[in-house]
Amino acid sequence: MITSIQTNKPAAPSGTKRRLKIWLFVIALFMGWAIYTFITQLESQGQAEIKLAEVQGKIDVATKQMNDLRLQVERLNDKEYIEQLATKEQGLVKKGEKQIVVE
C-alpha cells in the first residue's frame, strides 16, 4: 500500500495578506505619481515646442530683414543706384537737364 502523506499547509496568515495589500497600495500610489509626472512633462514639452516655433519664426523674420538691409547697403555703394534714387525719389536733376513734372 502506498501511503500518501498529506501536509496541511495552513492558510496564509492575515499578516501576510495585510502586507501584500499595503505593498499593492504603495505600488499603486507610485504608479499614479509616475503617470501624473509623465503627463505634466508632456504638457510642458508641448508648451516649450510652441515657444520654440514662435522664436524660430522671429529669427527667420529678423534674418530676412538683415539680408534685405545688407542688400540695400550693397546697393548704396553703387553710384548708378544712388543716381536713380536722387532722380526718382528726390526729384534732383543733373546739370543741363530739365525736370518734367506730370500732374
Automatic annotation (TrEMBL):
Q: What InterPro entries does the database record attribute to this sequence?
A: FtsL/DivIC (IPR007060)
* Keywords, in A-Z order: Coiled coil, Membrane, Transmembrane, Transmembrane helix
Among Pfam families, the record links this protein to:
DivIC (PF04977)
**Which residue windows are transmembrane per the record?**
20-39
User: This protein's superkingdom?
Assistant: Bacteria
Protein's name according to its UniProt entry: Septum formation initiator family protein
User: What are the coiled-coil residue ranges?
Assistant: 52-79
